[in-house]
Amino acid sequence: MNSLSDTFVLNNGIGIPCIGFGTWQTPDGKVAADSVKYAVESGFRHIDTAAAYDNEKGVGQGIRESGIDRKELFVTTKLWNTNRGYETALKAFDTSLKDLGLDYVDLYLIHWPANKADGAKINSDTWRAFEKLYKDGRVKSIGVSNFLEHHLRALLDGAEIVPAINQIEFHPGQMQPETVSFCRTSKILVQAWSPLGMGRMLNNPVLTEIALKYGKSVAQLCIRWVLQNGALPLPKSVTPSRIKENADVFDFEISDADMQTINSMPYFGGSGLNPDTIPF
Question: What residues are annotated to the active site?
Answer without folding.
Answer: 53
